[in-house]
């Protein structure tokens, strides 16, 4: 038997079930990017808010759009948009049934309907988790007018990209003379609210509608937010655990997450759910410092764990962070390099670093290197290059950043050499493949060309040639000594 509204009453004690009637929810939120992260983050906080708000909570159901996976929309629809959130601590798992989603749709098929939904008067907030690469930004954080998806969307009558769908939805609001919804970006992007606003304005302007661009700039709120919870892909083990905990009911779409949860949102005007009901949510004046700490220390360290770890055969974050050599290097990188420019006391930075290492090592969270490693070219600028640049300008060492970048490049070298499992999931895969083919056997030229990609690395780094040489040196050592031996040597240096 399947998890559904009908079978909700059969759930065993110990499972957290929604404390409201899901059929009474009206859609006040439209969400773009119905992935696991959304289902373990915004949905959980919205559910807690609905429970806390009584009658008023009924205004905050979520229409959630899957950007890439039609089957996810079907699966969730078949179980009345219910699913299990498995919160996994090292020694226990809590199952909670999530019921705040009222409808799941597939964005590609419904671009125009979705835009109309965004413009509907009931919709007060639009949230997004489409990943950093889903915005098609340059290294400077502007909409990349040369990216294929944007070029296509600009000509299309039905928008498919998040930015295109938002521009169209806001165009409809403006035409109707309505109050625009608040657009709340929940992705790991620097100054994510302001960046998204600019990207949507750029999209409108590129379509030739400068008036719409200006109207968006003046009338639509795009608060910044920092989101933090580690959420891996669903595994066979999750399906089995969900079934066991649900007393034998099948859930085809459970999500696992760590207990840690943070959502820091900059204050905005207008109605909203009482998200603070979910512990870890806070509204503040300025999200900047939290965002930098998270992007640099967590996401930056994740990239090093993913690339260097994956190359060394440590396929999950927990394995990589528990490896004495790599774990030590990552911790050093996080504390010595990735704290650059973060305006927090050293005591707070220390605690955050310590918490992060513990979270990374949580053995019940199976977070794959291959997955975190995706779309590196879109993640490099905000997470790695920004602190690296500041460290170089201040004369501090950047050995961890060199190792991270060299590992990323070596990933593509091994792909070029036909090593299995070195997939090239990246929006700039074609260019990266061409560079590798062109510079085969020449680490110096390869490092030079990679670092020369201005849409990834930005303007030349301080003392650029020295950075290229350091990275080329590592590439050479990877070839001759193998990655594990290089990590070992660096850790003991
Ligand atoms: C990860 C993030 O895949 C990635 O880029 O670094 O998804 C990370 O797990 C979350 O941002 C944690 O909050």
TrEMBL record:
The answer to whether the entry has keyword Transferase is: no
State the InterPro entries in the record.
Answer: 6-PGluconate_DH-like_C_sf, 6PGD_dom2, Mannitol_DH, Mannitol_DH/Oxidoreductase, Mannitol_DH_C, Mannitol_DH_CS, Mannitol_DH_N, NAD(P)-bd_dom_sf
Q: What Pfam families does this protein's entry cite? A: Mannitol_dh, Mannitol_dh_C
Biological process according to GO: mannitol metabolic process
Which residue numbers delimit the Mannitol dehydrogenase N-terminal domain?
A: 28-276
**Any idea which GO molecular function terms this record carries?**
oxidoreductase activity, acting on the CH-OH group of donors, NAD or NADP as acceptor
Q: Which residue numbers delimit the Mannitol dehydrogenase C-terminal domain?
A: 286-476
Sorted keywords for this record are: NAD, Oxidoreductase
Question: Quick check: keyword Membrane in the entry?
Answer: no
Q: What is this protein called?
A: Mannitol dehydrogenase family protein
Q: What is the scientific name of the source organism?
A: Acetobacter vaccinii
